[in-house]
């Protein structure tokens, strides 16, 4: 089985990343380079999360071998003397041969760092550029990222000058590399704690609220009112942009040098607008070179960029509106069926998509009623309690993992107990569940947050290229410090445990943070304690209340504005429901 577990997880994680990217991205319409770059970024980050437990179990086995082959005098009282000299070490089922993991981590880490700091920012600007040629897009991307890359070079150059002038520093290449890693991890840890503090509270709370049918329905009405406003704004913006395109198309005729640029813009417009513009245009009219009212290529590139953005936004709001309608109709059906005496789930509307026959056979109306009206609320409550328990353990461990005597971090206690008996299955499961829960708290926040209309991960293939690439950047910057934080919680990091033991292959690639003692002994240990303050702020919805005060409507049960939007959304859903019913009645009459 040597290396087999590693190979299986590499394949599994690839398909997991591909599945998630397919859910959010659009393979048919988005550029292949955007899809490949985002897939690679997500894949490498997920690999770190899934492979790290195997690294931990392999390291514990290697420590056991060192302890068996070493005498107490040779170990200098270190942790390796805990194993008796005659104890037999059992090889874990997922053991990875020596030399593989360091190479694997080095390739994964440095590739992800190249993506997040150099390639993906460039591709973001390239994807948003309205240029009509590859050269034009590259030029625009380089100009937009000049300040971004120049800042890095300035900081790095100032640091090199400081090291060269200061006689107390005698840094070698490995130490410079470690400092670079520490700087990247420090930036990532700063953002990590912010996202983690939100996810530790919001994930259990969202599942607990998921058991409340009335709460979900009211929130859906609230979302409907907000989405209708955004949908109307997107339609109005698209109309304005299409009007500009029409004027440009009418002014630049078929034999104008910039006509190719106009044709490129027209191809990005919705089909109905293309047909409308084609009917109203006379391509046989020559242009007059003496006129000075023709737009420049630069202005056409700007218009091209606006067309791409407005069409994407309009399409996204249309799809999201249909999905939200289906959710609202279904939640209203659940509320009606809860008092059903027949205990059979009855839908107001038939599903527009053909259902799987196997699912239809097993998921009968009776089974659906018991699940939706009886079992699902209790399942969500139990799951919320389990997740809340995990959150409490994480918060406690984040505040106490620096204590080694006694060991207060519960994750470190669990791992050390399993290490004494060399129960590798338990070690890997405990490590995987811990890091998986931490990842869910952080990654789910990345998927939920929305920065106006610039960054927004929308499911059902509605995420634009800029947001996909930005998510890849965030994942690559957050995952390495997340894994180092996990190793600190479990005391597998010698910097935290203060024991002279063999480090994990992942830690060895990160280098010894003792080069920067103020970061290793200060920031990395005490900054994660801020997660307590962030959890309290999230629990009392301080961020939501602040956004509400600033005019960004958020769902709050005690807000008058929320009540007004709920009533507005309820009326919108009622109108759409009547419209759908009239359509079905008309189709039934024609049959």
Which helices and strands, and how do they pair?
Layout: H1 4-24, H2 32-69, H3 72-75, H4 100-128, H5 134-144, H6 146-165, H7 173-210, H8 213-251, H9 259-268, H10 271-279, H11 297-337, H12 357-362, H13 365-400, H14 410-421, H15 424-448, E1 450-451, E2 455-456, H16 465-489, H17 494-497, H18 505-510, H19 517-526, H20 531-539, H21 542-549, H22 560-590
Antiparallel strand pairs: 1-2
Helix pairs in contact: 1-2, 2-4, 2-15, 2-16, 4-5, 4-16, 7-13, 7-15, 7-16, 7-20, 8-11, 8-22, 9-11, 14-15, 15-16
Question: Can you walk through the features of this model?
Answer:
This protein has 591 residues and is mainly α. It has a domain at 1-68 and 92-212 and 357-548. The protein is built from 22 helices and 2 strands. A two-stranded antiparallel ribbon has the order 1-2. Helix 9 packs parallel to helix 11. The protein is globular and about 85 Å long. The relative contact order is 0.14. The model is unreliable at 73-86 (pLDDT under 50). It comes from Cardinalis cardinalis. This is LMBD2 protein. It is a multi-pass membrane protein. Residues 224-251 form a coiled coil. Belongs to the LIMR family.
Main features:
22 helices; single chain; mainly alpha; membrane; transmembrane helix; coiled coil; 591 residues; 2 strands; transmembrane; two-stranded antiparallel ribbon
């Amino acid at each position: 089985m040597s290396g087999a577990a590693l190979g299986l997880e590499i394949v599994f994680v690839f398909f997991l990343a591909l599945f998630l990217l397919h859910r959010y991205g659009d393979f048919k319409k988005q550029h292949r380079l955007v899809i490949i770059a985002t897939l690679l970024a997500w894949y490498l980050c997920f690999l770190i999360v899934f492979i790290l437990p195997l690294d931990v179990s392999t390291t514990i086995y290697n420590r056991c071998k060192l302890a068996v082959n070493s005498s107490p005098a040779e170990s200098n009282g270190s942790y390796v003397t805990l194993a008796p000299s005659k104890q037999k070490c059992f090889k874990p089922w997922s053991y990875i041969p020596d030399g593989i993991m360091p190479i694997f981590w080095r390739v994964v880490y440095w590739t992800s760092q190249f993506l997040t700091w150099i390639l993906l920012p460039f591709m973001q600007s390239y994807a948003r550029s309205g240029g009509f040629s590859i050269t034009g897009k590259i030029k625009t991307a380089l100009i937009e990222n000049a300040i971004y890359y120049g800042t890095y070079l300035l900081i790095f150059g100032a640091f090199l000058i400081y090291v060269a002038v200061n006689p107390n520093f005698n840094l070698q290449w490995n130490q410079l590399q470690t400092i670079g890693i520490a700087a990247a991890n420090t930036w990532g840890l700063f953002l990590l704690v912010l996202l983690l503090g939100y996810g530790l509270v919001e994930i259990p709370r969202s599942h607990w609220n998921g058991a409340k049918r009335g709460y979900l329905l009211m929130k859906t009405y609230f979302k409907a009112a907000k989405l209708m406003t955004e949908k109307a704004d997107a339609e109005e913006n698209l109309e304005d942009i299409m009007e500009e395109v029409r004027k440009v198309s009418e002014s630049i005729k078929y034999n104008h040098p910039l006509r190719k640029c106009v044709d490129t813009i027209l191809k990005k417009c919705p089909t109905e607008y293309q047909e409308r513009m084609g009917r109203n245009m006379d391509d046989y009219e020559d242009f007059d070179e003496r006129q000075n009212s023709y737009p420049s290529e630069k202005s056409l590139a700007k218009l091209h960029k606006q067309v791409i953005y407005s069409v994407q936004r309009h399409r996204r709001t249309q799809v999201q509106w249909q999905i939200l309608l289906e959710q609202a109709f279904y939640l209203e059906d659940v509320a009606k069926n809860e008092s059903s005496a027949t205990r059979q789930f009855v839908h107001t509307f038939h599903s527009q998509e053909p259902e799987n026959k196997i699912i239809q056979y097993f998921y009968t109306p009776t089974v659906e009623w018991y699940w939706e009206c009886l079992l699902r609320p209790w399942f969500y409550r139990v799951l919320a309690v389990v997740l809340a328990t995990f959150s409490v353990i994480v918060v406690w461990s984040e505040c106490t993992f620096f204590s080694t005597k006694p060991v207060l971090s519960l994750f470190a206690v669990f791992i050390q107990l399993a290490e004494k008996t060399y129960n590798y299955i338990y070690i890997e499961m405990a490590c995987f569940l811990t890091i998986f829960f931490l990842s869910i708290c952080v990654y789910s926040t990345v998927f939920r947050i929305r920065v106006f209309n610039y960054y927004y991960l929308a499911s059902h293939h509605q995420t634009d290229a800029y947001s996909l690439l930005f998510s890849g950047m965030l994942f690559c910057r957050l995952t390495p410090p997340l894994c180092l934080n996990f190793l600190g919680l479990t005391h597998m990091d010698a910097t935290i445990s203060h024991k002279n033991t063999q480090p994990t292959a992942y830690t060895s690639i990160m280098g010894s943070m003792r080069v920067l003692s103020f970061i290793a002994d200060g920031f990395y240990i005490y900054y994660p304690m801020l997660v307590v303050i962030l959890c309290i702020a999230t629990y009392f919805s301080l961020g939501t209340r602040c956004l509400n005060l600033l005019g960004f409507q958020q769902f709050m049960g005690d807000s008058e504005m929320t009540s007004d939007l709920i009533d507005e959304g309820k009326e919108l859903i009622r109108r759409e429901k009547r419209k759908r019913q009239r359509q079905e009645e008309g189709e039934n009459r024609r049959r």
